[in-house]
Amino acid sequence: MQGSANLNVMIKAARKAGRSLVKDFREVENLQVSMKGAGDFVSRADIAAEKIIKDELMEARPNYGWLGEEGGGEEGNDPTRRWIVDPLDGTTNFLHGLPHWAVSIALEHKGEIVAGVVFDPAKDEMFYAEKGTGAWMNDQRLRVSGRTHMIEAIFATGLPFGGRSDLPETLQDLARLMPTCAGVRRWGSAALDMAYVAAGRYDGFWERRLNAWDLAAGLVILREAGGFVEAIDPAERVIDAGEVIAANEPLFDRFAKIIRG
After folding, report:
1. Where are the alpha helices (DSSP H) in the chain?
2. How much is the pTM?
3. pLDDT tens across 185-209, in order?
4. Contact 245, 255 (CB under 8 A)
5. Which domains does the chain have, with CATH numbers?
């Protein structure tokens, strides 16, 4: 697909950051296995990737605002537009040498996500979309799955770690959902989970306590692939709530009813 100038800038920045991260990823196995050493290494890789993205995007669009996982937020001279960036979604996978992590870049205009890129450098899969033009992976048009029966469907989520307070809630979700479906996957990257629903690899996804940079790019990709996306609390906006429930149209209402309890 021939994208807009903004989308082309986003894809170029994602590829450039991805090359840097792949180089660092090859060094992960040589790290001394300690939380401090490994954590510091990943943090450096993360920060370096964000700098690459920011340099590329802000050179092309110096008036836009910025929200990044590492660098925080900055107001732009154009108050209606901002970049929302997660340079490394799936940090724990990266740290453990698991090749499932992504670069996520979104463009927000007047509070709405209008373009998004989720790049998986390890598999060379570039998921992208712009509002009104469909969703794509490399040169392939994306469409959510056509499954209509819960018992045939696979869902994805993130499981709370380190004693987070939302663990009991997620366990209750699983207890209600797992008897009704073909399986639940936890692969450790919300951006890729949403891209995989867009590609029909998963039939649905839900998760709580996410940040704007985890969600933004995946939202527009999923919607442009025909997915239904809401906050778990339907009165909230997904980005504001930091939570999401998404599926294809035939499954959405049943899936949402289960998760919402």
Report:
1. 5-25, 35-60, 91-95, 167-177, 190-198, 212-224, 238-241, 249-260
2. 0.94
3. 999 999 999 999 999 999 999 999 9
4. yes
5. 5-141 (3.30.540.10), 150-260 (3.40.190.80)
